[in-house]
Amino acid sequence: MHQGKTIICTALLTALLMACTKAAAAGRNSEDSLFMQRIFSYKRLNSADIDGISMNVYVRHNVQTLKKNKALILIPTMYALARKKNNEFLGESYSRITFHTFSDREEHRHLIVGTLPRNRNTLPTMTDMLTPDLYGVTLLNGHLLSPFHRDNRKFYRYGISRLPGNRRLVAFVPKTNNTQTVKGQAVVDYFTGRIESVELEGEYDMISFHINATMGDKAPRSLLPKTCDMEAVFHMTGNRIRANYHTEYGLPETLADSLKDSHSRELMDSLRPAPLTHHEQRLYQTDDSLKAAQERLPKKERRKNFVKHVLWDLIGDNLVNRIKGNFGPNDQGFFKIYPIIDPLSLSYSERKGFTYKVRLRGNYAFTPNQDLSLYFKGGYSFKQRQFYFRLPLKYEFDRRNNGFVELEIGNGNRITNSSVKQHLIDEQREDSMRLENMEFDLFKDTYIKLKSNYDLSNRWSIGAGLTYHRRSAVDKKIFLEENQPATYHSFAPMVQMQFRPWAWQGPILTLNYEQGIKGIGKCNMAYGRLEGDAIWLKKLKRLRSFSMRAGAGIYTQKDDEAYFLDFENFRENNMPGGWGDDWTGDFQLLKRDQYNSSEYYFRTNLTYESPLFFLSHTPGLGKYIEMERIYISSLMAKDIHPYTELGYGFTNRLFTIGLFVATINGQYDGMGCRFSLELFRDW
After folding, report:
1. Where is 318: in which H helix or E strand?
2. How much of the chain is helix, strand and coil, in % rounded to 5?
3. Dihedral sign computed on CA atoms, order 605, 611, 617, 622
4. Could you tell me how many helices (H) and strands (E) the chain has, helices first?
5. Does the pTM of the predicted model rise above 0.85?
6. pLDDT tens by residue, 404-420
7. How much is the pLDDT for 135?
8. How is residue 41 annotated by DSSP?
């Protein structure tokens, strides 16, 4: 009996201890949860916004080439490291930075000195990491999901421990190992949720990084660092580069705006917030000695070295790097020439083969509300053996209301139309069998477009324009033999209305009408064409989005010689420029001859985009998948009821790839893939 009472008492005591332990754990969990909510809400509760904050910033970086080979010369910003025998370089800058957002900032660089030729900056993507957006969805614009944003808490595990005073140490690790996540720890004020210091470790753009930052004391400066130190390591194709950065914000010395990109070492010595180490001083001394030795060489030898090294470096450097700069009395002009040797310019599709693109752009601002811009985009299709280009010249006379006039010249896309071939066969009945077996319905398309636009309000826009097309047969021989025209001309005025029911935050609905007119010059086609288009890029939480497009078009009239049914919003594009991956809102496997004789169309395109979605959770492979997409597209046209494409694609730092399968009228119509390189996109 006594033994039974002892067992009962022991059981009751055990149950009581377990209940107390659970209650304490629940209390701690509740306390930790409230604490994390303070971090997630810190920016909102303190009305913190960096828009308009301006500060002086000092940056010092040291770059070491631990291993290098000849492949390094082809990597953007690495040309100087590959060419020079030095294995270590030093650079410093002093700038005035005005923030609007973390991704939108104005930098006036007063000073830049260093031992790299022409003070080049290597690993440019890392300089943005020196100002991480801790409370934003991403630490870097569109990349690296922040563990301190409420929407991202499902991606991380957190551990909280006490520190002396009213502070907590928050450690975080990703639930899924992926290049879109980071790990590390932060010291946080317990009562406010303000991050005092943070340590981050991750991988971005093939660069492993480790960051230590001390944040500002009070909002809104608490959103920005006071100091930031980073070690970055780039490892690729047998090359290994290490860079160390030290940054200090909010320095007291403000320089005149007239001082820009000065290379005065003496001025930098007077502004540097802390002395250089002996090792850093030796790097400057070695560089000065080499330059002095070069100056002591005979004039003939200096000229030889100039041609061999300086001129060659200039040419080679610009082949693999972007060339950009300002011009004009107050730097109103800006130009950018994209690299000639650029892996990003190469893309592939099964039907079109490999395509290589070149780009350049320029802009000149007359006033903050008026500017002139020029953009050239060209591409060579190796399979089609044709060079395509677009050259729009745009004058914005009222930027605030999107008022502009644009002149565009291009050679469009090659177009086919079976009705041209059928007409020729019908005209030459006695020779129809020979013509039936020949492929001669492919035409080049050169065009000139003049269009204008003006926003009447946030919801309504109106536009008008003129379009001229010259379509000439690729193989003119058969047309000449049969005494038929091989070139067709068209001229058409156009009007357009655009409606945005929720201003710029919702769908954009466009309606345009184009009327072809015969008898103007050589123009021999009359037609009327009406098209409607609706697009909506719906942003969701955690970098997810829906890209939606729907449209329809119809020829309201068409004479017998209007062979080319060339819709404005629905055509094959040899130089795509989509929303997220150049393919969204378009068809990938649809062949021209399946739709180009239809006088109408109805189309829909839907793309869902998300990080860490499906394959991202695959062990090993998933670490490198940054963004995944699902594509659904459908088309109704003459003899097509319907055409459907389904696809899946993903992006990593090396490439974007998509796999697609198509059906037509309920029957399998084929499958294919597309890919484009992402390598060094932000370099």
Report:
1. helix 312-320
2. 25, 45, 30
3. positive
4. 10, 32
5. no
6. 999 999 986 666 655 55
7. 94
8. H
